[in-house]
Specification:
mainly alpha; Rossmann fold; two-stranded parallel sheet; two-stranded antiparallel ribbon; 5 helices
Length: 177
C-alpha cells in the first residue's frame, strides 16, 4: 500500500487482494502462537489458572459517533480515520478477539477468556462522556518531559476500571469453581 494514498483505501486493501492475504497470514500466525503460549504455560505450570484477556472495543457499531469530539476535546476520537474505514478496523479487531477466544477454547479447558470486546460496546473511543478508550490525540494523564502524551486509543481511567472489574469477576469465578 502506498503511504501517499488516502486512508479510505485502507479498508479496500485489507478486504481484497494482497492486503487480505497478508492479514489472513497474520491471523493464522497469531492463532498458532496463542495456542502454543497456552500449551507451554500449561506444561511449565500445570496447576496455574490461565486467563487470556481480550482487547476492549475501539469502534462502535454506529460509526457516526466517531465524527464528534468527546466532551472537552477538539478532535474526533479516532482523528482523521474516515468513517467508511472504521467498520474495517472494527472487523479486524473482532477477528483478533475471535482468534483469542478460539485459542482458549482449543486449550481444552486449560484457559479462560475475558471477552472485553463484547462487554465494552458502550464504552468505545467514540462514546463521548462514557468512553473507556482515550482518543488518538486526546491528552492522557501521563507526562513525558513536561508534556502530556496522547492516549493513542488506550484505556482511560473509566476503561481501566471497567476492564479491571471484568477481569476480577472472571478470576473470582475461576477460583470458586
Amino acid at each position: 500500500m502506498n503511504g501517499d494514498e488516502p486512508a479510505a483505501k485502507c479498508g479496500e486493501f485489507f478486504e481484497s487482494g494482497d492486503g487480505k492475504q497478508w492479514l489472513d497470514e497474520q491471523f493464522e500466525q497469531v492463532a498458532g502462537e496463542l495456542l502454543l503460549l497456552l500449551e507451554l504455560t500449561h506444561d511449565f505450570a500445570p496447576d496455574a489458572k490461565r486467563v487470556l484477556v481480550g482487547y476492549p472495543r475501539l469502534v462502535p457499531e454506529d460509526t457516526a459517533k466517531c465524527l464528534t469530539p468527546a466532551p472537552g476535546q477538539t478532535e474526533p476520537p479516532l482523528a482523521d480515520i474516515p468513517q467508511d474505514t472504521l467498520p474495517v478496523l472494527d472487523q479486524i479487531q473482532k477477528r483478533l478477539n475471535d482468534a483469542m477466544q478460539e485459542a482458549t477454547a482449543d486449550a481444552e479447558g486449560r484457559a479462560d477468556f475475558v471477552d472485553l470486546y463484547a462487554n465494552t460496546d458502550g464504552n468505545t473511543a467514540c462514546d463521548g462522556a462514557d468512553r473507556g478508550i482515550g482518543g488518538l490525540l486526546e491528552d492522557s494523564q501521563v507526562e513525558l518531559i513536561g508534556t502530556k502524551i496522547p492516549w493513542y486509543a488506550h484505556p482511560n481511567e473509566k476503561g481501566r476500571d471497567i476492564q479491571a472489574e471484568q477481569v476480577a469477576d472472571t478470576i473470582e469465578k475461576i477460583l470458586n469453581r
